[in-house]
Specification:
The protein is mainly α. Helices cover about 70% and strands about 5% of the residues. Strands 1-2 form a two-stranded antiparallel sheet.
């Protein structure tokens, strides 16, 4: 053991010499307190996404009939092509791409219209439209799901009670979400319900159109957020310039109370050790110095105490996992973990680069690869093991 430690010391000394003489900036290694502080900021985003996906999967498992493929919702997602089981793969792919193109064109036009309304200070029109849409989502779409659930579970409830509940829930949800100030947790809960309701209806889109639409939305997210003329990028920059809230359905998470304490404790320790850090460096960094984040000039990994995630990201995460749940629990679990892993990667990228990043591409890419990998490779392997009585623990 002593010989091994001496060898490690020699390696550490030899590794530090080039770094010190080459003029490279010292590489920062994340400590336990910093890691816990980052986790305190990330987890309040991961938890609601997990709840939204879990609720969508629960609705799919409860209301979806295995072996019965929906012909579509009859809306814009099937405006060009209505998928049929008898169609060939090439016909399905072409039709799915046409449906995705129409949907992306509508989303692009709607986002630019939102930007123009926000630019010319017509935010009241935006909020009025969103409030009316929220009322319809809670009352009509949510009420339809409620009736299906009651029928599936064979729960007898009189219609007067159902209507009174729907009216109070819908009116309260629209007012608390868009107009009235109220507890943050109540608004967060209503936003999760909106994403669950909408995502469940999106899972009724035919399979080929669903996967094509998910990939198309991930690519659109890259354009809308990262390109100079992207509509979402322009909306975010305009909101920051005016110091106003973004007029959109945005889920706002706030770190736990311990996060600020850990940040202050970590900052105090870093200040005390700043002189000694110039003479030492580690060659196995977890997070490197890349983006300026603090006011004292040091470039460190930094996440704000409050992170905002668009409700569209919740919806398409849930659609992916819900579609995977229609096939098997194995594909659902693989997609579930992949989407969350992609979200964490995106949040870490937010901390590294310090600017708005698209939340769909990484999670959609990992979730899609996980679905097809689990469907065509992992699940047949597991089924074959089970058929031969082989259990891996």
């Amino acid at each position: 053991l002593t010989r091994a430690l001496d060898a490690c010391d020699r390696v550490g000394m030899s590794d530090q010499t080039p770094a010190a003489t080459s003029g490279r900036p010292p590489i920062h290694v994340v400590t336990r307190d910093e890691f816990e502080a980052v986790a305190d900021v990330i987890m309040p985003v991961v938890y609601p996404v997990t709840i939204a996906m879990a609720l969508c999967v629960a609705l799919v498992n409860l209301l979806h009939t295995p072996g019965v493929e929906s012909a579509g919702t009859g809306g814009m997602t099937t405006a060009v092509y209505a998928e049929k089981a008898s169609d060939s793969a090439s016909v399905k792919l072409e039709g799915a791409m046409a449906n995705a193109a129409v949907f992306i064109a509508f989303i692009t036009a709607a986002t630019f219209a939102l930007f123009l309304l926000f630019k010319y200070r017509l935010a009241k029109v935006i909020w009025a439209y969103m409030g009316f849409s929220g009322l319809l989502i809670f009352g009509l779409l949510g009420g339809n799901i409620l009736l299906q659930v009651l029928d599936k579970l064979e729960i007898a409830v009189d219609m007067i009670s159902v209507y009174l509940f729907l009216w109070n829930f819908s009116a309260g949800g629209a007012l608390m979400t868009f107009f009235w100030p109220g507890p943050l947790v109540v608004k967060q809960g209503y936003l999760i319900f909106i994403s669950t309701i909408v995502s469940y209806y999106f899972t009724q889109i035919p399979e080929w159109t669903t996967w094509t639409l998910l990939v198309a939305m991930a690519l659109y997210d890259l354009y809308a957020v990262l390109t100079p003329n992207g509509p979402l990028k322009m909306i975010v920059e305009l909101a920051q310039e005016r110091d106003e809230d973004i007029p959109a359905l945005v889920y706002e998470s706030r770190g736990t109370p311990d996060a600020g304490l850990r940040r202050r404790r970590t900052s105090a320790r870093e200040t005390a050790e700043s002189r000694a850090s110039e003479a030492t460096s580690e060659m196995s960094p977890l997070i490197q110095d890349r983006s300026p984040a603090s006011d004292d000039g040091d470039s460190r990994f930094h996440l704000p105490d409050s992170i905002k995630l668009g409700l569209g990201d919740f919806i398409f995460y849930s659609v992916l996992v819900g579609r995977a749940a229609m096939y098997s629990p194995i594909t659902c679990l693989c997609c579930f973990t992949s989407v969350l892993f992609g979200l964490v990667i995106t949040l870490l990228g937010l901390g590294l680069y310090g600017k708005a990043l698209p939340a769909l591409p990484v999670s959609i890419a990992l979730g899609t690869l996980s679905f097809f990998g689990a469907r065509f490779y992992l699940e047949p392997f597991v089924v074959d093991l089970y058929a031969h009585g082989i259990f891996v623990i």
